[in-house]
Design the sequence.
């Protein structure tokens, strides 16, 4: 029973028909395959274009966020310079704590040009020691003068830094000699 395949003419015809049907099916599907490949390539192009738009939008968002942060910082700096936030009057407990831990506050009214009212204003702005005035940056002078309601240039003209340095170092006699006795 060792029969060879495809020995009869009908078997050969069936084989030829099967091969012909496979060839026709392959031909019919090859155009469809090309069409799917083309659609896939188009979809990849659209996806890449969308990705590029998204990257550009994200870059613009980062730029705007950075500009927003710079603007917020600028507004905050200007707001602090124009309207520093401070307690209007420190509580007794805060004053006692400051006295105990930080040596209290200096009598800023000993500086010529600073009366008790201005001393309270300075204390509210966080300037409580002679060294605070002595180390005052020049760019903070104008905002401070405006906040205190004194004429422009008062801090330099009345030599607040020099007076604060003398008083901080304990040279009250030299201060009195150079700037006069302050009440």
Sequence:
């Amino acid at each position: 029973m060792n029969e060879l395949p495809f020995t009869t003419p009908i078997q050969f015809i069936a084989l030829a028909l099967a091969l012909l049907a496979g060839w026709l099916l392959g031909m019919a599907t090859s155009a469809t395959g090309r069409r799917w490949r083309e659609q896939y390539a188009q979809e990849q192009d659209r996806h890449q274009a969308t990705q590029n738009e998204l990257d550009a939008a994200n870059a613009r968002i980062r730029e705007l966020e950075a500009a927003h942060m710079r603007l917020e910082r600028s507004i905050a700096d200007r707001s602090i310079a124009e309207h520093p936030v401070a307690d209007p009057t420190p509580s007794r407990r805060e004053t006692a704590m400051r006295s105990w831990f930080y040596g209290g506050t200096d009598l800023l009214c000993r500086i010529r040009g600073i009366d008790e009212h201005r001393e309270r204003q300075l204390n509210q702005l966080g300037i409580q020691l002679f060294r605070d005035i002595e180390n005052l940056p020049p760019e903070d002078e104008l905002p401070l003068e405006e906040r205190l309601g004194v004429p422009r240039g008062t801090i330099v003209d009345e030599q607040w830094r020099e007076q604060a340095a003398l008083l901080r170092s304990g040279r009250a006699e030299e201060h009195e000699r150079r700037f006069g006795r302050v009440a």
